[in-house]
């Protein structure tokens, strides 16, 4: 089991560490890299996975529902905690709800459970992203238009991929292969960008960051564990759900907070200390998953 965990986590940490090392001696334009990734490579991967007729998307309906319940339920669970501690809900709750299913989740799930986990990883990633750019933006500003979400390349790619799959359209193999190759760039690039972002950790508000590092995976697991028994998920989907529920806050929370001018330094502490905390949380979750659920290799 230790070998499985190391084989899963070491590539993740090595690639993120390479980003941190490069960012330490250089000043890469990481925002432009992230823009390129989110506007080109990630949408291509999403479309290629969803449009591939070999991926029976109907089998992932319950997983998508479970992922949505984890995102929304974690916010409901933590709402009274936030009020009791006197924290700003607009600052604290979104990072707890919207996790790092892109930068860390997709690579981690593929490394842990093999290429067959890619469709499930993409499904939970899409659910998290769509909720982030609808419910999440509404939480920050109720006047936010949904048109902003519909213009996102990843949303357009999701809709197009679903239509192609459901409509039974057979795309040429060479086209899907090219999209898979270009989309595959996004996985290591996500981890590399995460490593560069880790250099921006602000320890001045470490208490809030540490609190978030504990509550983010805990609240997700509180919702996910009952769903394991209530929903008809197969072993692989159950494993994906548990790892998804325990992921740290998404880096995108910081970018959104910066745009809306909602204490971006506090959000940076929540996001980046939470991602550091995953060095402890993820090995434990993977150990429990490999020992308990034992998804197919």
TrEMBL record:
Residues spanning the signal sequence: none
Chief site of localization: membrane
State its location(s): Membrane
Q: Which domain of life is it from?
A: Bacteria
Q: How does it sit in the membrane?
A: Multi-pass membrane protein
> Is this entry keyworded Transport?
yes
Membrane-spanning regions, if any? Answer: 33-51, 60-82, 117-140, 152-175, 181-199, 211-230, 236-256, 268-293
Give the UniProt keywords, A-Z: Cell membrane, Membrane, Transmembrane, Transmembrane helix, Transport
Instruction: Spell out the Pfam families in the cross-references.
Output: Mem_trans
**PANTHER family, sorted:** AUXIN EFFLUX CARRIER FAMILY PROTEIN (PTHR36838), SLR1864 PROTEIN (PTHR36838:SF1)
What's this protein's name? Answer: Transporter
Recorded source organism is Vreelandella lutescens
User: Lineage, please?
Assistant: Bacteria, Pseudomonadati, Pseudomonadota, Gammaproteobacteria, Oceanospirillales
């Amino acid at each position: 089991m230790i070998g499985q965990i190391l084989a899963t986590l070491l590539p993740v940490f090595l690639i993120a560490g390479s980003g941190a090392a490069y960012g330490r001696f250089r000043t890469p334009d990481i925002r432009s890299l992230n823009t390129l990734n989110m506007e080109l490579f990630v949408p291509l991967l999403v479309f290629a996975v969803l449009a591939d007729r070999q991926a029976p998307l109907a089998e992932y309906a319950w997983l998508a529902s479970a992922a949505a319940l984890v995102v929304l339920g974690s916010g409901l669970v933590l709402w009274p905690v936030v009020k009791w501690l006197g924290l700003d809900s607009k600052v604290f709750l979104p990072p707890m709800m919207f996790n790092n299913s892109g930068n860390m989740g997709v690579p981690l799930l593929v490394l842990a459970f093999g290429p067959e986990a890619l469709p499930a990883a993409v499904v939970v990633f899409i659910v998290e992203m769509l909720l982030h750019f609808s419910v999440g933006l509404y939480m920050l500003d109720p006047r936010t238009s949904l048109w902003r979400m519909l213009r996102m390349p990843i949303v357009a790619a999701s809709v197009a991929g679903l239509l192609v799959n459901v409509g039974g359209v057979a795309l040429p193999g060479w086209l899907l292969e090219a999209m898979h190759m270009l989309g595959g760039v996004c996985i290591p690039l996500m981890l590399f960008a995460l490593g560069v972002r880790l250099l921006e950790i602000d320890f001045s508000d470490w208490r809030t960051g540490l609190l978030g590092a504990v509550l983010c995976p805990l609240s997700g697991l509180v919702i996910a564990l009952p769903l394991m028994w209530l929903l008809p998920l197969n072993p692989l989907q159950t494993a994906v759900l548990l790892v998804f529920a325990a992921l740290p806050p998404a880096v995108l929370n910081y970018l959104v907070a910066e745009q809306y001018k909602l204490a971006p330094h506090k959000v940076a502490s929540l996001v980046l200390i939470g991602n550091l905390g995953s060095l402890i949380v993820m090995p434990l979750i993977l150990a429990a998953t490999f020992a308990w659920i034992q998804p197919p290799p």
